[in-house]
Amino acid sequence: MKHMNSEVKEERTSNKNRIDLFLVPIVLIAAFLNLFKIWTDEYANAYYTAAVKSMLQSFHNFFYASFDPGGYVTIDKPPVVFWIQTISAKIFGFHGWSVILPQALAGIGSVLLLYVLVKRTFGVWAGRFAALAMALTPIVPAVSRTNNIDSMLVFTLLVATWMLFRAVRTAKSGWVLAAFAMIGVAFNMKMLQAYMVLPAFYVFYVVATKITWKKKIAFLTTATALMLAVSVSWAVVVDSTSADKRPYMGSSQTNSVLELAFGYNGINRLTGNTSVTGSGHKQPAQTEQQTASSETKQTSNSSADSSQSSNQRKSSSSQKMQAPGGGNQNGMFNTGNPGPFRLFQKGLSDQISWLLPFVIFSIVGLFAGVKFKGPYTTKQKESLFWLAWLLPVAVFFSIAGFFHQYYLIMLAPPIAAFAGAGAVALWSMYKQHNGWKSWLLPGGILTTAALQVYIMSPYVSSIGVAPIAGVGALGVILALVLAVRKQRKNSLTNYLGAAAMVVLLAMPAYWAMTPIIYGGNSMLPSAGPDSSSGMGGPPSTATNSKQSGFNGMQPPGSSSGNSSSNGGQMPGGSSNNGQMQPPSSSSNSGQMQMPGGSSNNSQMPNSSSSKSSSSKRKSGGMNAEVNQKLLNYLTKNNTGEKYLFATTDSTSAAPYIIKTGKPVMAMGGFSGSDPILTVSKLKAMIKKGEVKYFYLSGMGKGGQSDVITWIKDNSKEIPSSKWQSTSSSAQQGPSGNGTLYEITLK
């Protein structure tokens, strides 16, 4: 800490040609958190992993990001990240870790980029603290350890930030164009989420450049036009291609990329509503909520003992979750209830908010004395950039109708940047006895420690009282001692300041390690002692989270007699008042209710036993194993059909695509609600000999109930004895909830 007052120019000169030795352990920490044991996740998020398997098979599938090898339907996101994952799988072979690797490296890259961005202006110590804060923000490694998109998205936006800062520093317009073009690339990763940083880019360029308003407007207009052109380039190509020449655009209702961008992946995230074909009304984020609920019942540990199941039932009543706006603070999937303090509620605060009070104090210190009309220093200009990133994103997550916990990684860069820059600024004010500003450091330490105690308090049953009391006591003591010693200048004061920062980063560091310690969740990643559930929030006291990383849940189709009648219903269903059972609660054989009230037994056709002692985690956001007897039956009886079988949704199809590389038709796309198939189209496919077997489980009827009805009325049911395993070690199978049909039309 005693070096933090060195001038930026001196630090830049002295370190120009040397590796920062303090940065090395920070990068190693980031590498450990992002890379260690990713090789144990065999399938990762199976929905996306199946797409990579399909994309490896042809350029047609690669370009459109087809979910299945047959090119029937795409995944629900643009292709850029999956292009990168496919290239990685091509180089290193098709494995879970090879599709995760690009995101893990992106997480490490984000730490390095933040160091570079903050160090140049705020000093080397600020860069170090910012990099460390980024590495230890719990949601960052939790997401980076999966094949979800967000880690790569944040890295790309930080590259764009580096380009923008360079544009201002060098006064070269080419870098401005490159920065906005990079945001266009990010749009082709996760669509409108990439645009959340635009206020920061516009504000910073206007404030930081010393050119006329006419030139500013001209440059920004040109850069924005380029960004929009890059953003819609893939969409225009896809949407202008005849529908019969390409896969259906998954999760859209009109087979359009642009509709997907501005609807399902855009405005509906804010409103929490999405149209469900055939339902006649709106449902809360139906597609992803269905998947999330499916996740809670399908990522499971079949070795959970009966005492655990009993205790889980006892704890379920206190852990039911309601949709945003309901009375339970956890909200839908523990994203809290909309409001100004949402980021401090359970489920979100432990993912991202550990340092938020310190950041607020840092913002006050960094902008103290700033006049609205300027002039502004470089530090103030860049602080304004990070503030213009932080505030709009924080507001969005405070009011949004639907999102998942791991989206919060978008807040990590500005929080880490302010933590680093603020630590140096507040320390300088403290050491210089700068009036009321000198109280900002002890005040920031005290309030941050208090928030951390609040964040940890629901987890006392799993982490114990000691760390909670330790952080609280040390935070109070160090803040008070620093306040008392404010007039003294000696090495002890320096060490006290350093100790305070260590205390504030200790529990975020532990939380960041929980996906390694307890097991992670590849479909709905989150951090915390219950990280394997992917649902956030305090875990059941009876849950042994270390068992295969699946929180001891009963698997789909389990024959356990400990089920209750609550049903794990989806929002919009008729029971439980719209509440959904959390991972620790027992449900009726894994059943859940589809929005609109239709029954959903959604057992996927798998029956391979779950081996909790296995070194490979086959979570995949689903029980990503296959029913070998079913696979053998389908393979043996295939008479040249294009599709091995058809099923309602991606949950049942993905494991078979991963296992065999053969086309499996998800008739209704990701969730089963896409209006892709009609009865007449299906008849034509059957007559052409493209498909004859159908596995129906009740899941995903939202957009295809007429198709399902026609299949049942015109097919021959295959006896379960021919394809379903009956061994006691294969209880993950359909267990009678699903049915296999055969249709042959002449």
Distance between the termini: 81 Å
Give the percentage of residues in beta strands. Answer: under 5%
Tell me the structural class. Answer: mainly alpha
- Total beta strands: 9
Low-confidence stretches: 1-8, 10-15, 274-328, 539-614, 728-736
Radius of gyration equals 26 Å
Portion in helices: 40-55%
Major β-sheet profile:
5 strands, mixed
Shape: globular
Structure description:
The structure is a single chain. This protein has helices at 8-14, 23-35, 46-55, 59-64, 80-92, 96-122, 124-136, 139-144, 150-170, 173-190, 198-208, 213-239, 257-271, 286-298, 306-316, 349-352, 356-367, 378-399, 412-431, 440-456, 460-463, 466-484, 491-517, 628-636, 650-660, 679-687, 705-713; strands at 273-275, 282-284, 592-593, 599-600, 646-647, 665-666, 693-696, 716-717, 739-742. Mean pLDDT is 81; it is low at 1-8, 10-15, 274-328, 539-614 and 728-736. It has a 5-stranded mixed β-sheet, sandwiched between helices. The protein is mainly α and 746 residues long. Helix 25 (650-660) links the parallel strand 5 (646-647) and strand 6. The termini are far apart. Helix 6 runs parallel beside helix 19, helix 17 crosses helix 19 and helix 22 runs antiparallel to helix 23 (491-517).
Provide a compact summary of the structure.
This protein has 746 residues and is mainly alpha-helical. It is built from 27 helices and nine strands.
